[in-house]
Design goal:
single chain, alpha/beta, 9-stranded mixed sheet, 5-stranded mixed sheet, 12 helices
Length: 327
């Protein structure tokens, strides 16, 4: 009797807690963050900005791969997150967030504080991030074995892991040894720019599914035309995606390319987690053998719902609307 087909999606990345602030462009400029980008900082910088904020923050579990894996769990798929947290209050908050969203945990514990991200949300709904990695940066190569990805159909890797080349390579090798395919979300154009020297080789050799937005695709390929960028990416991987905001997404798969529009009118309260949740819907569809257009539409539904709230946590009624897209 044949073994049942794998459906588990495992994510590996930074175990971070999001501190979400709604502030104006002046606050953003003084923070030193680039609009739409990500800047690595120490904990003191985050504490200083937090203290200067005009409004109380929203504090929720975060991190790019974590957001995607939580989305998989909420869609009803088997989901696992691999990372390192601190033995502190924020670390406990992170663990409880995974548990409450149906995500299996494979978390290593550090004596260092749990990492956190200060996400500044400006009136145009853009989010700009300052990141203190804390314990999340201490995951050791020796800890990432094939066992952490046991039974996974797919391992989803966040682009921020590129800042730790040895850990990225360990994750890719462990995923292959576990018999899983690998998806990579490029995460931020700043990630691409700072890791351009190794990114091409990693993508060609180890990635099955590559997900980028238009800024990341441009930084990687040099093309401002998204369809040309998609073509370049599709020559490197079996499945390539270029997300284009309010205009939807371009997807290349199986030798063909298509455009998938967005859901709704494109209005957003906050774009935090939009790409991460788009990936959740898309990857869930792929491992469940949905037609590629339906995968894109499910991704668009997840991306739309998360843009209607502050932060990357979609409420229950939003998930009910998303699940209607699965029928």
């Amino acid at each position: 009797m044949a073994a049942p087909r794998r459906k588990l999606i495992a994510g590996i990345g930074s175990a971070l807690v999001d501190i979400l602030l709604q502030e104006d462009d002046h606050f953003l400029a003084e923070s030193g963050a680039q609009k739409g980008g990500m800047l690595l900082v120490d904990s003191k910088k985050i504490d200083e900005l937090h203290a200067r904020a005009k409004c109380a923050p929203y504090i929720v579990p975060g991190g790019s791969a974590c957001n995607t894996i939580i989305g998989i769990g909420r869609l009803g798929g088997p989901a696992r997150f691999v990372g390192k947290r601190g033995n502190d209050v924020l670390g406990n908050l992170f663990s409880e967030g995974l548990k409450s969203n149906n995500v299996e945990q494979n978390l290593f514990i550090s004596s260092s504080p749990t990492g956190r991200v200060l996400s500044i949300i400006t009136p145009d709904a853009q989010r700009s991030m300052l990141t203190f990695l804390g314990a999340s940066s201490e995951t050791q190569v020796s800890e990432i074995t094939a066992d952490v990805f046991k039974d996974a159909a797919l391992v989803h890797v966040e682009g921020y892991l590129l800042f730790n080349h040895s850990l990225m390579n360990a994750a890719l090798k462990a995923a292959r040894r576990a018999g899983a395919k690998v998806s990579l979300d490029l995460a931020s154009y700043t990630v691409v720019e700072q890791n351009r020297n190794i990114l091409d080789e990693i993508v060609k050799d180890s990635i099955d599914i590559l997900i980028a937005n238009e800024d990341e695709a441009r930084a990687f390929t040099g093309h401002t035309d998204e369809q040309k960028a998609l073509k370049v990416l599709s020559e490197k991987v079996p499945t390539a995606v270029v997300k284009i905001g309010k205009r939807g997404s371009y997807i290349a798969h199986g030798g063909k390319s298509l455009h998938v529009g967005i859901k709704g009118d494109g209005r957003a309260i906050d774009t935090t987690g939009a790409g991460d949740l788009w990936a959740a819907g898309f990857l869930f569809g792929l491992v469940n053998d949905y037609p590629i257009e339906k995968c894109g539409k499910l991704g668009a539904a997840c991306g739309y719902e998360v843009c209607q709230v502050i932060g990357a946590s979609i409420p229950d009624d939003g998930w009910e609307r998303i699940k209607a897209e699965m029928i």
